[in-house]
Each structure stands twice: as C-alpha cells, then as structure tokens.
Amino acid sequence: MNKFEKVTTGLGEECGVFGAYNMDGGDVASTVYYGLFALQHRGQESCGIAVTDTYGERKVHSKKGVGLVNEVFDAESLESLKGNLGVGHVRYSTAGASKAENAMPLVINYVKGTLAIAHNGNLTNAVELRHELEYTGAIFQTTIDSEVIAYHIARERLKTRKAEDAVKNAMKKIKGAYALVVSSPRKMIGARDPFGLKPLCIGKRDNTWFLASESCAIAAVGGEFVRDVKPGEIVSFTKHGVSSDMSMTISPEKQARCIFEYIYFARMDSVIDEVNVYHSRIIAGKALAKSYPVEADLVVGVPDSGLVAAKGYSEESGIPYGMAFHKNSYVGRTFIKPKQSERESSVKIKLNVIGEVVKGKRIVMVDDSIVRGTTCANIIRMLKSAGATEVHVRISSPPFLYPCYFGTDVPSNEQLIAHSHTTEEIREMIGADSLGYMEIEKLKEMVGDLGYCDACFTGNYPMEVPGKDISHAFD
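Structure tokens predicted for Amidophosphoribosyltransferase (475 residues):
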C-alpha cells in the first residue's frame, strides 16, 4: 500500500468554463488564462485552453493538463496559443476519473471543421446516449459525459446550416445540467440547460466578448458584465454581432438553479441571475441567527464560504464577529496526507486556530455544510484545544440527505452523516455544544423569486433522475 494517500476535503466543486472572442483579431489565450485563474475555486484537478484564428487557417491549437492553471501554463505555452477565439476550462471530476485525457476543452475534428467544447455539469442520460453512439460506430477517447455532448453537436452539425442549430438539436437529446461554451471555426456559442442549474454569463471589453461561469471572471479580465445567459438560452457571437435563441426555455416556475452556488460554490464577489452571492450569504447567516439564537462571545466563520454567513449571523445577533482561523492559501482542496505515524491532522495542514482570539470565549462557528462530519469534528477539537469554552455550530445549508445527479460531488448516502443520524446525534459526534442547520423553507430568502434546486436536501429533483449514481458510470 502506498504510504501516502490523497485527501479531498469538503464537497466537490463543479467546473468552470470561460470563452473569449476578440473581433479585432487579437490573441486571447492570456485573457482566457486569467479568466480561468478567477474560476480556479470551481475546479483544481485539471485545466485547458483551446484557441482558433478566425481570420487565418482556422486550425485549433490547444494545451491542457492535470494541475492548477499556473502549473499547466507558462508564458511560453500561452505565447504559442495563437488565435482570437478561445475556450477554457477548469475541472473537478464529477463524471469520469481525474485523468489527463479527461481534461477539457475537448477538441473534435470532423467534416465541417473543428469544435472545441467546455462543459460544466452532469448529464442524467449520458449512459444511454453514449451506448447509442457506440452502437453507431462512435469511438470515445475519454470517460466524461462532455464527449457525448460534443459528438451529438458534431453529428447534428452535418444536418444543419448553422452551428447554433446543431447545439439546439443536441440540447433536445441531452438531459441534466450543463453550461456550455463551444467554439466553431468562426463562432463562439454559449448554452445553458433549460432549468438553469449551472450558471453562465456574458461580458464585454472593447471589441472582445466573454462567456464565463461567474461574473468574477469577467471582472478579472477587465470586462464589463453584460447579463446572464438565460436558462435554456443559446447565444452566438460572430463578426456580425450577437444572436440569441430562446426556443429551449421553460417557464420560470420550473427553473431550478443550484442553491449551492449561493451557499458555497460561487465566489462571494459574483452575481448570478441578478442575485449577489455575498448578499445571499449574509441573509443565510441572519436566518440562522433568528432560528438558532445562543448566548456567546464571538461569531467566527470557517474559511472561505462560512465567513460571510458568519458576518450575517453576527449582524443579526449582535454578537461580535471575529477571525479565528488562519488558512494556508497554498493548499488546494486535494493534497497528499502524511502517513498515519506522523499523526498530522489533514485539517491542520489547511487551517490553524488563532489561540488568543478564542481563548476563554463561547464561540459560534458558522460553516456552509457538514458532509461526513470528520472535518467539522477536527475544527471543533482545535478550537477547544485553543481554549474555547463552548463551540456552537451553525450550518448555512440544510442537512444533506440525497445524492446530486447534476455535477455536485455529494458523496453517496452511506457517507452522508445526516442520512443515518439525527441532528442531536451529529452534535454529539462532532463535539459541538449546540448545532443548528439552515431551515429548508428559509433557503428562499437567499434568492428571492428565483426557482432553485434543493434536491440534495429534499429529494425533490426538478427532472427524472436515474435509479443509481451515474457519476462514475464510464470509469
């Protein structure tokens, strides 16, 4: 057995997509690179960039690999990626193992030219679509469902006049969650699933158009946020301008954005579907303070996604807000755990408690979720070792009870602590003095009138889902 093992902390993030089209013909690889940098929190396993020159030979040049954006790319490799239309991707593996060949964007050469595709999400009918393609002669190079989407777009393109019509026809077949950025020889196309489960937005800087998973990436490249791509919308960017196809949209009451974007996934400086992520987390913290008041001396948040909710709890309760943890910013979500004999805690590698802040105090500790319970238990132990007299835990999401089929790496039911234990049992197991989860009916306060998906808490899926976990069906 290997003396080292990899540790993944917390929930699995999703993926991040970014596209740039410079209508003046300037190279965009470095812009895509910085856009991906701003989306690194969405995926830290692999990344890639594919570019094409819409004015020249229209050949796609790409580079991708396993690792962080700044590990895979350097100045020399970016310089070699010549082209004014680019698609980029950061990946966290939800479907398909973390292998180099599964890195995106996928580049497909076919009769009509070359497609580059970046995808965030998970298809619920990927297995049947893949088998259908295989029985008509398709040969797959990867184990990811994004390749199924790429094949369907390529096949439909043979029957359609425009690439965006091929995307629309493919959308009629695929089911599940997706935000797509596709480059054809002369077009950049963005598409969002009809439920709006995955975010996608449009930005602009001078004569360059952008597509991105989050608005923070558009800001990072000096762009101006234009608007969100609407659920079910297909947007197309060419030298003639921007066009939109809304024929795949569904009624607003059926739309179902992933609520976890607002609780955890998205960066706090992003705005998704006109809801400010920072503001939604403040509201979550205030709701927790109303539902679970407690006498305490200090409210602290677990970095990073618990910090803003902790601020909201503090504002509503009147209990002072403080910083109790130093986070090591150089440790990713996945890292090598030292062998057991060295006895280092995986949590301590990432977080350290600031003793003088918590010593002798009753602490309210706010975090975004409890998945297996081990991380939370370790942090509580660290706080009490540093002298905290009480630790009251408040969680800005309801308990996880059901699997996600749409691209969030929620573990199987057996691994979810809330699936087989009551709140009181969990409180005892993690060593907290009290424990309060966000009430399901209060999630609505975070996003107002937006339709959202809370299936991982309620089991109410917005569409039909498979009877078994599909996240590693092709491995």
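Confidence is low (pLDDT under 50) at residues 1-10, 340-344, 468-475.
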